[in-house]
TrEMBL record:
Residues 376-723 form the Disease resistance R13L4/SHOC-2-like LRR domain. InterPro entries: Apaf_helical (IPR042197), Disease_R_plants (IPR044974), LRR_dom_sf (IPR032675), LRR_R13L4/SHOC2-like (IPR055414), NB-ARC (IPR002182), P-loop_NTPase (IPR027417), WH-like_DNA-bd_sf (IPR036388), WHD_DRP (IPR058922). Residues 256-326 form the Disease resistance protein winged helix domain. Residues 733-760 are annotated as: Disordered. One of its GO terms (biological process) is defense response to bacterium. This is NB-ARC domain-containing protein. Residues 2-167 form the NB-ARC domain. Pfam families: LRR_14, NB-ARC, WHD_DRP. Keywords: Plant defense, Repeat. The lineage of its organism: Eukaryota, Viridiplantae, Streptophyta, Embryophyta, Tracheophyta. GO terms for molecular function: ADP binding.
Length: 760
């Protein structure tokens, strides 16, 4: 990679800067992100921060400090800009660092950031991205620094990218599509973002109309309608105008969040529901909201974010160019108001949705808050502590959504008064370790649907059973549970529930009988040495087996179980012989890093009707019987397997096992592999991730038997002892579309084998 060569091309120890320059949509951030994830393991500390147009420089510096520091610096929220700069210089002293500053839009921003970055002789590297050439020149003022210009794709590459995003093995390009694709490629002008959005539009219109000629007529007619617009904006308007009304509303709602902010899927869907964007129907609000989320992903107007090794999006981000487009539409329709608009724009008669980050001084916002009409605000989202909020909280009388999840400095006293008077509130998200208890008047919020306190210190959820409409209840380790949880008839997801005494076991038994419960997270907290009795373990197993059986429709609704064990003192091994998973269970995830079962639960694949599609499981040592059970799960598409010990004799994965598997991740604590891919094995596999120690690769046999038609992403991590293995790539073009990468989500190399250095 050329940028890597510029950064690491020689052994000089002085600071080196590479500035990636080009207009929006060319892929500057994506390139910087790939380089960052490839190189960060070679540096003592690293950071990736955003410094865009509406971002306050202090916020950028604070984010950088939190990423490069060993621990969270004390008093971070109260630091002034000069204090942050001083702290950063101290943190980076005598360290070799890699820092990426994304989207620098003004010379003054770089001048301030530069003051915080030590120019020592330790081989540190800085990557900047900018749309402005003068800024790129300012960043690169040494002879060893480099400006890396991002150019547009050529006609041939543009057409190839467009075709690869529309067609795959199942959907071949029509014989008469060549001329139209050439025309569209020229309209996209070699801009990857424009090509991606246009491909999303063409894909969904082709599915809808089933006639390529009709698709061509529709798109060309739409482009004529927006002929006055230039570049990517024309394509964005065409794609937006094609959306159904609910999807337009849901898309505009994303202007609440900052650029490249990772928006969690659950948070977004429950907020959409609270705002009334999801109409009532046969499907649940969650299912319908999830379909909206997936539809927006397919438009390419939002980018999916994937969890570690997962194949399903857990959230999304919005590209800066697209966010600017969405924000402009939102502002015109008075849909969302940001703090920048409060200060810079003309006063509005009504504010419906208010989003406040750290772009403006709190005194200015307090002055604005004192003068504006807060009565009609339906949604309030804060990304930092706001001193003016507490006295004004009771003014938000029509508030449906109060999202304070990113307010790290939030404390109990900030929520002491007025919350119970927000009678229409449906969504409450809290953050900050200083929040230790639920607000005392939370039980007055009778319309509450979502209560999320995962980013707080709240453990006692006993008041939640007084919220009759609660559908989502989320905490980190809830150890005091609602006594009358069996009366919470609307509850659909509850996580994480700590099971460590008789009361919590009884609560779990009641939870298992709820008719609408869809997702449950459970943490087993009985210690092995003095812990649970046989009766308590039996009660736990029985409750887990009964999840979803009480569905009012007669069709089990329970889908996902997340299972954890406390520290290294609790064992779940009693599940191996006795637990029978609920028949409707689709996702089973063991999330504890230190808990290993002695074997695969024998009842996991009792018959061919198992519904499990996603499985993360930790086994002490996998044997033939365990491999057989896993391989016979008929619908399994995702498997993350962790082991303690490698089998002495390699296990063979045959063609009759794992017939539906698309994603396979394997890691063994002793660094071994211990299996062989037989001929025709895992015929549907798309992604493979393996971890092993140097010398074990000789046991990695049969990879050539994997289907080259589907396999498009391979990632290996080799554990070495004091030996650096540089990244190597195996070039092969995938023949089927894979999920697109996102700026904050490290992409799988497609295709590549990446070897990382790990000190052992």
């Amino acid at each position: 990679m050329e940028v890597v060569d510029h950064l690491m091309g020689d052994k000089e120890q002085q600071l080196r800067v590479v500035s990636i320059h080009g207009f929006g949509g060319l892929g500057k951030t994506t390139l910087a992100n790939e380089v960052y994830h490839e190189l960060r393991g070679r540096f003592e500390c690293h950071a990736f921060v955003y410094a865009g147009r509406n971002q306050h420089i202090r916020t950028t510096l604070l984010e950088m400090l939190s990423q490069v520091s060993d621990g969270q610096p004390a008093g971070l929220e109260s630091m002034e800009e000069q204090q942050v700069i001083k702290q950063l210089r101290e943190s980076l002293e005598k360290k070799r660092y890699l820092i990426v500053i994304d989207d620098i839009c003004m010379p003054s921003v770089w001048k301030v950031i530069k003051c915080a970055l030590r120019d020592g002789m330790h081989g540190s590297k800085i990557i900047t991205t900018t749309r402005i050439h003068d800024v790129a020149k300012l960043c690169c003022n040494r002879p060893t620094d480099t400006i890396y210009p991002m150019g547009q794709l050529g006609e041939v590459d543009s057409k190839k990218l467009l075709s690869s995003r529309i067609f795959d093995l199942e959907r071949k390009p029509p014989s008469d599509s060549d001329g139209f694709l050439n025309d569209i490629s020229k309209i996209c002008d070699g801009v990857p973002l424009a090509i991606a959005v246009m491909a999303g539009l063409l894909s969904r219109k082709f599915l809808e109309l089933a006639d390529w000629k009709k698709v061509e007529e529709y798109v060309m007619s739409g482009l004529k309608q927006y002929s006055m617009l230039q570049g990517i904006r024309k394509i964005l308007y065409l794609s937006y105008s094609d959306l159904a009304l609910p999807l337009k509303t849901c898309l505009l709602y994303l202007s609440i969040f900052p650029k490249y902010y990772e928006i969690k899927k659950g948070r977004l869907i429950w907020r959409w529901s609270a705002e009334g964007f999801i109409p009532a129907g046969e499907a649940s609000a969650w299912k319908r909201g999830e379909s909206y989320f997936n539809a927006l992903i397919n438009t390419r107007l939002i980018q999916p974010v994937f969890g570690h090794n997962d194949d399903q999006p857990v959230g999304c981000t919005v590209h800066g160019v697209i966010l600017e487009f969405i924000a402009s539409l939102s502002s015109k329709e008075n849909f969302v108001t940001t703090d920048a608009e409060l200060v810079l724009a003309a006063p509005r008669d009504a504010i419906r949705r208010l989003s406040l980050s750290s772009n403006q001084d709190d005194d200015i916002l307090k002055s604005e808050a004192d003068s504006m009409n807060l009565y009609q605000v339906r949604s309030l989202t804060l990304f930092r502590i706001a001193k003016w909020m507490e006295p004004h909280l009771i003014d938000f009388q029509l508030l449906r959504v109060l999202d304070l999840e990113d307010v790290e400095g939030l404390k109990d006293e900030h929520l002491a008064a007025g919350l119970g008077r927000l009678f229409l509130l449906k969504y409450l998200g809290l953050g900050g370790e200083g929040v230790t208890v639920l607000p005392k008047d939370v039980d007055e919020l009778q319309h509450m649907e979502t209560l999320d306190v995962r980013r707080t210190s709240v453990k006692n959820l006993s008041a939640a059973n007084k919220l009759p409409k609660l559908a989502s209840l989320l905490a980190t380790d809830a150890n005091v549970l609602p006594a009358e949880v069996d009366k919470m008839h609307e509850l659909q997801e509850f996580s994480m529930v700590s099971i460590g005494d008789q009361n919590s076991l009884e609560c779990l038994a009641k939870l298992a009988k709820l008719k609408r419960l869809r997702t449950l997270g459970v943490k087993w907290c009985f210690a092995d040495d003095n812990g649970s009795t046989e009766a308590q373990r039996k009660s736990f197993v029985t409750s887990l087996g009964e999840l979803g059986l009480s569905s009012s429709s007669g069709i089990p609704t329970f889908e996902s179980l997340f299972l954890d064990a406390a520290g290294g003192t609790s064992s779940l091994d009693f599940l191996v012989k006795s637990w029978v998973p609920p028949r409707a269970l689709q996702k089973f995830m063991m999330t504890s890093p230190n808990c290993y079962l002695s074997g695969v639960p024998a009842n996991m694949a009792l018959d061919t009707s198992s519904s499990i599609t996603h499985l993360e499981i930790a086994i002490a040592q996998l044997g033939d019987e365990g491999l057989k059970v896993l391989g016979e799960l008929p619908l399994l598409v995702f498997l993350k397997l962790r082991c303690l010990l490698t089998t002495e004799n390699s296990l063979t994965i045959t063609a009759d096992k794992f017939r539906s598997l698309q994603v396979f991740s394997f890691e063994c604590q002793d660094g071994g592999l211990g299996f062989v891919f037989g001929e025709g094995a895992m015929a549907q596999l798309r992604k493979l991730r393996l971890y092993f120690k140097a010398g074990e690769e000789s046991r990695l046999q049969g990879v050539g038997h994997l289907s080259v038609s589907y396999l498009c992403q391979v990632h290996t991590t080799v554990y070495c002892a004091g030996v650096e293995i540089l990244p190597s790539r195996m070039q092969r073009k995938p023949s089927q579309n894979c999920y697109p990468t996102t700026p904050r989500n490290p992409p799988w190399k497609s295709p590549s084998i990446r070897n990382h250095r790990t000190e052992g």
